[in-house]
Specification:
401 residues; UDP-n-acetylglucosamine1-carboxyvinyl-transferase, Chain
């Protein structure tokens, strides 16, 4: 939003941001945004107009950044080539690609499913047809269209289809836009996207990422260690992950008011956990249920459309540790009271950082080899460094082809 505005914005709380945020910053800089690092903050100066990139826009592993940038560049009368790493290439634009094609944006990609790299050339056609967006697989297409709507040449009406998933993420996008002067409307049925001008705040304090606390809980359960949790956000900024603090005691972790996490006795009754708005928690929560009370994770069929099919990949990962787990259509079933055993083969997290971080927490107790030793850097660059003082030895090794 700072790149789309007219005045500088200071982002505070950028320490420890992962490679996904770095990918978004790098691509916006290619389009003309100026970024100055200053006392643990980024000072962002928007361009008068976006320039045509001289090279492809590489979004790394970030599906969110890909879709935000695709929506932004789709309104420009100039070509842009978007690409990403191997995992992002397999995911591609997804449903957002179908929306852009339906409204006159030219896309040229490797196959009919709009995978990457994709050559994108806007602007949108001058049509009054409603924009139809699926909500059952991801909220990202709707968020991308909303946050790029100041570049539209005409008012647009958006109609949602399918059962809504990750609604809190879309609500966050709407709140960000409203803080920048967005006069539109968001409802369960769709969005009204009028023409508007972005007036971003002078400064923004970024909250902590609540989803990362799931790995702190899993570390405590798997190693019987102690973790000091910092920057736990308010419930409205936790994007559904505030359920972790409510569940901690049942999962076998005592959570003090000061953020100290220590081992405790888990609940006896299996837990029923709805991940409709927090599907990113599926891998570590599945492991926590296995080591604790057991139960069912449900409401997350959209987890199948992440870096990997996160439902099946979670099952494969936990079974490699000798844990009993069963996939369902929208989550997993996990018996409780289990203990992991050392894997007999290398663990493949399918280029998914949340699976890699889950595997690391479990392997800290029993050992193991995890493919993709840098995957955590997507979200938490210092993850392994912070665990080292506890005795974790994470040594890179050569993996034969």
């Amino acid at each position: 939003m700072a790149a789309l505005g007219a005045s500088s914005v200071t982002l505070r709380g950028v320490e420890g941001l992962g490679e996904d945020a770095g990918s978004m910053r790098r691509v916006l800089e290619q389009l003309g945004l100026q970024v100055e690092a200053q006392d643990g903050a980024w000072v962002l100066q928007p361009p008068e107009r976006f320039r045509r990139p001289s090279a492809l826009l590489h979004l790394g592993n970030s599906g969110t950044a890909l879709r935000l940038v695709a929506a932004l560049t789709s309104h420009l009368d100039q070509p842009a080539m978007l690409d990403g790493d191997a995992s992002l290439r397999r995911r591609g634009l997804g449903d957002l690609g179908d929306v852009l094609l339906a409204h006159g944006v030219r896309l040229r990609a490797g196959d009919a499913h709009v995978r990457l790299p994709v050559d994108l050339h806007g602007p949108w056609a001058q049509d009054a047809e409603p924009v139809v967006v699926r909500r059952d697989r991801s909220s990202q297409p709707a968020s991308a269209l909303l946050l790029a709507s100041s570049l539209q040449s005409m008012d647009r009406e958006v109609r949602f289809e399918g059962e809504a998933r990750s609604s809190l993420h879309l609500a966050l996008s709407a709140n960000i836009a409203k803080a920048c002067g967005w006069p539109g409307e968001l409802s369960d049925a769709g969005m009204h996207l009028p023409i508007w001008d972005v007036q971003a705040p002078d400064a923004v304090d970024l909250p902590g990422d609540a989803s990362m606390a799931a790995f702190a809980l899993l570390w405590v359960r798997s190693t019987q260690g102690v973790v000091q949790l910092n920057r736990w956000p308010s419930p409205e900024d936790a994007l559904g992950c505030d359920l972790l603090s409510d569940l901690a005691h049942a999962l076998g972790v005592a959570w003090s008011d000061e953020g100290a996490l220590t081992p405790s006795t888990p609940a006896e009754a299996p837990q029923e956990i709805d991940l409709c708005d927090a599907n990113d928690l599926l891998p570590p929560l599945a492991a926590l249920l296995a080591l604790g009370p057991g139960g069912r994770l449900h409401g997350a069929p959209h987890a199948a459309h992440k870096e990997s099919n996160r439902i099946q990949s979670t099952v494969d990962l936990l079974r490699a540790f000798g844990l009993d787990i069963e996939a369902t259509q929208d989550g997993v079933l996990v018996p409780g009271g289990q203990r992991p055993s050392a894997p007999t083969t290398r663990l493949d997290p399918k280029e998914d950082h949340r699976l890699m971080m889950t595997a690391t927490c479990l392997a800290a107790a029993v050992g193991g080899e995890v493919i993709g030793p840098r995957l955590h850097r997507v979200a938490d660059p210092s993850f392994l460094e912070r665990l080292a003082p506890s005795g974790l030895v994470a040594e890179p090794c050569m993996v034969p082809p």
